[in-house]
TrEMBL record:
Pfam families linked: Thymidylate_kin (PF02223)
Name this protein carries in UniProt: UMP-CMP kinase 2, mitochondrial
Domain (Thymidylate kinase-like): residue spans on this chain: 221-400
Main location: mitochondrion
Length: 412
């Protein structure tokens, strides 16, 4: 009979490894005495070890968010650069809650893998939990912690798959901030490591904290890259005699590249605060004229969730989850238009535009699953939700449709 999730968490530690297709495989690691002999050994590890390969897991305790996120990113870079160490798979430990990597290396002994790993990890070792994996009695896999303090534990395929992706519970803390105070807190913690964080915070300090919208309409245009946001927002600006704003706003754009190269926690805090900075511009401008905004909070949340939650649509947080709700302290637009386009047409437009692609754009183009998740996430956003508009007709028709939509919302 399958063990319950709560029992596994009470007695064992539970690990989730992201397989090649982005889906998750769950293992439990139990003190040998309470391991039921009927529980099967885990896939992935058993064939690898039986074939003479080796495996190590590295996890980063998450006590201090910013240093932990930076260490995790540094490890990823080091492992990606070190070809002789095998393939790193993203790994979540659910008890204690930690993130890290599982290194799988066919045809290399545990001792040999350890010899390559030790110098690479030397500087980080005090802040990491590292375990090697061993095979005994033909089909028993043991987890063996480095250092003297940990007893080895039996690793088995977990008989329960928690219904929720392990990263869902960390989204609020690490990627989709529910209020400006949280984003500000993260950027403050970054100042010792990233001096530019101070620049962003100084600009934010000058902004009113809960600005109110003026009487003119505020319309946001969202959508994947190359769906026609720039084209549409420019036309709306002209035909409505509106002011056109962008998030992130021009005043922090100079630092965008720096934050784009930082781990999720820091990168998303930058974009989140960017939305609050643009909100004060929206408030000021909407007392004088209509305002069009090219990307806003929905983009920040949708991209953050799609990057953090691996696998397919089934792994996304359930409908009406708190991460889909508009932050209460962020100025709300009157209408959010979502431009939708088939994958083929979007790629054609990207190619005909021909400018250099950012890493995330290139990933979007390549990764159909990621694109599907971003689009689905846009549609799950609430209060306000996005209104989808087909962006495939000619430019003039798209603009006309959106102008009708704006009129129907009684905004002009
Ligand atoms: N309705 C349309 N039909 C055909 N091409 C379009 C349409 N709207 C935009 N484009 C073209 O597609 C490309 C991407 O549009 P753009 O407005 O830059 O998208 P985004 O700002 O969303 O990245 C541009 O070359 C643009 O001229
Ligand atoms: N309000 C915003 C705007 C952009 N972003 C991030 O910036 C990326 C897209 O910005 P972009 O400027 O390349 O998009 P386009 O306006 O070129 O389509 C997304 O991948 C998001 O990660 C965000 O998080 N929040």
């Amino acid at each position: 009979m399958a063990a319950s999730y709560s029992r596994l968490l009470a007695e064992d530690s539970l690990l989730a490894v992201e397989a090649d297709d982005g889906d998750l495989l769950y293992f439990s690691c139990s003190p040998a005495s309470c391991a039921a002999p009927s529980r099967r050994p885990p896939p992935l590890l058993l064939p690898l070890l039986a074939g003479g390969g080796s495996a190590h897991s590295l996890t980063v305790p998450c006590s201090e968010r910013v240093p932990a996120a930076q260490l995790h990113a540094a490890l990823r870079r080091a492992l990606d650069a070190e070809r002789g160490l095998g393939r790193p798979l993203p790994l979540f430990s659910l008890q204690p809650r930690e993130r890290g990597f599982l290194l799988l290396q066919p045809g290399r002994s545990k001792a040999a893998q350890e010899r390559r790993l030790r110098p690479l990890l030397a500087a980080h070792l005090p802040y990491l939990r590292v375990c090697g994996y061993e095979l005994s009695c033909g089909d028993r896999v043991w987890q063996c912690p480095w250092g003297a303090d940990g007893a080895r534990r039996l690793v088995q395929k977990a008989e329960v798959d928690p219904a929720v992706h392990p990263a869902v519970s960390t989204l609020r803390r690490e990627a989709v901030f529910g209020c400006w105070k949280e984003a500000q807190r993260v950027l403050r913690e970054c100042i010792p490591f990233i001096p530019e964080a101070r620049g962003v915070l100084e600009l934010w300090d000058k902004c009113p904290k809960y600005p109110q919208k003026g009487n003119f309409p505020v319309i946001v245009v969202e959508g994947l890259d190359a769906t026609g946001k720039t084209t549409l927002t420019q036309s709306l600006k002209e035909s409505m005699r509106a002011v056109l704003l962008k998030s992130p706003p021009a005043c922090i754009n100079q630092w965008r590249k720096i934050f784009d190269n930082e781990p999720t926690l820091i990168r998303r805090a930058f974009y989140a605060l960017g939305n609050y900075i643009v909100a004060s511009e929206i408030a000021a401008q909407s007392t004088k004229s209509p305002v069009i905004v090219d990307r806003y909070w929905h983009s920040t949340a949708a991209y953050a969730i799609a990057t953090e939650i691996s696998g397919g649509l089934h792994n996304l947080p359930v409908h009406h989850h708190e991460v889909y709700q508009w932050p209460e302290d962020l100025l709300k637009p009157d209408l959010v238009v979502l431009l939708t386009l088939s994958h083929e047409e979007r790629v054609r437009r990207l190619q005909s535009r021909g400018i250099e692609k950012t890493k995330e754009e290139a990933e979007l183009e390549m990764n159909v699953r990621f694109r599907e998740k971003v689009e689905e996430l846009y549609k799950r956003m609430e209060n306000p939700g996005c209104i989808p508009v087909d962006a495939s007709p000619p430019r003039e028709a798209v603009i006309e449709n959106v102008l009708h939509l704006i009129e129907n919302h009684c905004l002009i």
